[in-house]
Specification:
CATH topology of the largest domain in chain A: Rossmann fold
Structural class of chain A: alpha/beta
Radius of gyration of chain A: 27 Å
Oligomer: homodimer
Largest sheet of chain A: 6 strands, parallel
Order of helices and strands of chain A: HHHHEHEHEHEEHEHEHHEHEEHEE
CATH architecture of the largest domain in chain A: 3-Layer(aba) Sandwich
Strand content of chain A: 15-25%
CATH superfamily of the largest domain in chain A: Response regulator
Number of helices of chain A: 13
Number of domains of chain A: 3
CATH class of the largest domain in chain A: Alpha Beta
Shape of chain A: elongated
Chain lengths: 353, 353
DNA sequence: CAGCATTTGTCAACCGGTTGCCAAAACTTG
DNA sequence: CAAGTTTTGGCAACCGGTTGACAAATGCTG
């Protein structure tokens, strides 16, 4: 009776009544209970509550569970408890490399703590984002919003329902993870100043982007400190293409150094300037932002202010999971440091020609 | 009585007994039933089975549902039915840009058909992969494996349980989506031959990679056809770094053209060769594979054989969802076309010097 | 308008766990 | 060894939907 018969719990000849699993049906705590000669509730306790049953019974049940190759049914568990061991991550654009490290960071942290990641994309739309968030809310234990586009109030409304952590934006009363741009920008501007630059052009990102505003502020502050003149140039969109389009405006400013809202803009800008015959960094220095994948593929490789995206994702996940598991502060902002990554696209200013 | 009072169904003063939702608890079909004056099961039918209840009752129930802001509880639904409207995607490495587009393609297709994507990573390990797959199996309706590392048999075992679709590998009896490399490689080799190249070095990928084998076969066949000599060079790992390391071996072959297993290898190789003073493409032509994000950031931009990764992801998701919804063939392989993307890193062979 | 077929709604069981409450069992202690 | 305390396991209700079986209501036919 004790041999692990492979036929298991579903030995009935009638081919599976409800669950169309043609092979073996998954074992339930009832099967275990029968096999171990105890009550199902005891099995439930043995498997979830630590030390609620005697060591003897515990062993008995664990063996039976192992023998039947038992795995809890997450839905059955979720129904009465509301806990799903799942958390959501909503990003604006899956193909934007900025988010990839965030996704990875969150994914890894989640897996390590036995949580599953559910991913959704908002396609850069505030409406889609809110819809996705609402949909997810019923399914997950908590939510991470990376660079959300929706209103602060909507975010707070979601946060009232279940734990929410925001990345790359500061929302009052909601825990946030944001890169502190000051250090990185400071380093970048000091480096440029040290190389003799007098005027810096900042290529801004989307008008509604919270992060773009912070970066512009940071650039202004750092320039004041280092006695550089800072001018702002608007871009149509924060992509490689947007960077190409903005080249003309950048040149018009007469600046010898450029700091862009993100790396894609920097790459596009550099491509366009080089195509126009300008030498980087000899005639103009370019500094990007984020240090995305591929930032070092360019010639010269891109100098950039690194945003620790992976850390943001991991930090947000840690924060969220702490919240879910009862530890950790309810709100407050986690700041992660940015730093200058000095590569080839920035350097000494040369006399024209 | 008919006004939509915002206090909703949970007006009881005792602060939430089980569901810790401090605000309003979610409405259930029982609430709807009470409000509409029908039986809960009627509500269930009205909301899922089309035309099982009279138009009159239908309307009544829908109004009540709207009024209560009802949303089904996915777990409660999943428990008896087994359906979750969810599918899993397992990739070897989240940070590998090859998978970016696959993830996106699958995500978008899924969302469009009202399915949610659950993402997991195997960290390039066959064991982790199988574990993740097994875990997921209990939660999702079906699974997509992108470039799986596990054994064919393990994959088939999973496929016996629930629908599985494989990307970038062919597994018998399991539906697969694979890029057909012949066309793209053919175009690449013809282009090189047309530019006067006589000898092509192929930089191979991981020894166990199914795809690497296909690409090498394709290169050999195309070279034979175009009267080029093909030589194979092994790489330590399919990354930028691996590409740098293999530069010496590539030069040793004396080939004037190189085709690499993937773009990362090509980029690393190009960086190393350029650092050593070689001109690309004047002294050596380099062609990558996949056309990943960033392949055009290099100088010169990388010529590459594009693998329609997004299409693969979308195709796999479509396939899987068709399977889940009853339409579509049970197995068989979907082939997507590859094509040459001619950029600056390949061209005419010049006399040495 | 009786007799029959069809539509529509209800009842009740079920999916697979969790948990409050209680009694039996085991362990202390005087 | 009796009385009191602590463990331990069992009972049963519950989470929120789905669905087969059945009866009531409705429609159709002669």
């Amino acid at each position: 009776m004790t041999e692990p018969k492979t036929q298991g719990p579903a030995a009935s000849p009638e081919t599976g009544k409800k669950p169309a699993r043609n092979g073996k049906a998954n074992a339930t705590i009832y099967d275990i209970a029968k096999l171990a000669g105890v009550n199902p509730s005891t099995v439930s306790r043995a498997l979830s509550k630590p030390g609620r049953v005697s060591a003897k019974t515990q062993k008995l049940i664990e063996d039976a569970a192992a023998q039947l190759n038992y795995q809890v049914n997450p839905f059955a568990r979720a129904l009465p408890t509301g806990r799903t061991n799942t958390f959501g991550l909503i990003v604006a654009d899956i193909t934007n490399p900025t988010f990839f490290d965030i996704i990875r960071g969150a994914q890894i942290t989640g897996t390590r703590r036995d949580y599953t990641l559910v991913l959704a994309e908002s396609a850069e739309s505030a409406v889609t984002e809110l819809t996705a968030a609402r949909r997810m809310m019923t399914t997950v234990d908590g939510l991470i919003l990376a660079s959300p586009r929706m209103d602060d109030d909507d975010i707070r409304a979601l946060a009232r329902d279940k734990p929410v952590v925001v990345i790359n934006r500061e929302v009052e009363d909601v825990p946030c993870v944001i890169p502190d741009v000051r250090k990185g920008i400071g380093e970048a501007v000091r480096s440029l100043a040290g190389n003799g630059h007098k005027k810096l052009a900042f290529v801004a990102g989307p008008a509604r982007s919270w992060m773009s505003a912070r970066r512009w502020e940071g650039a202004q502050a750092a320039c004041e400190w280092s006695h550089l003149e800072a001018v702002r140039v608007e871009s149509s969109k924060p992509t490689v293409d947007g960077g190409r389009q903005v080249a003309r405006d950048v040149l018009a400013t007469g600046a010898t150094a450029v700091l862009t809202y993100n790396d894609l803009l920097a790459i596009g800008l550099m491509q366009e300037l080089q195509a126009g015959g300008m030498a980087v960094p000899d005639q103009i220095s370019i500094v990007g932002f984020d240090d995305i994948f591929g930032a070092d593929f360019t010639t010269p490789p891109l100098t950039t202010v690194r945003s620790p995206l992976g850390e943001c994702g991991a930090g947000a996940a840690t924060r969220l999971l702490d919240l879910l598991q009862g530890s950790g502060e309810p709100a407050g902002t986690l700041r992660v440091e940015t730093e200058l990554v000095l590569r080839g696209s920035s350097g000494r200013v040369f006399p024209a020609g």
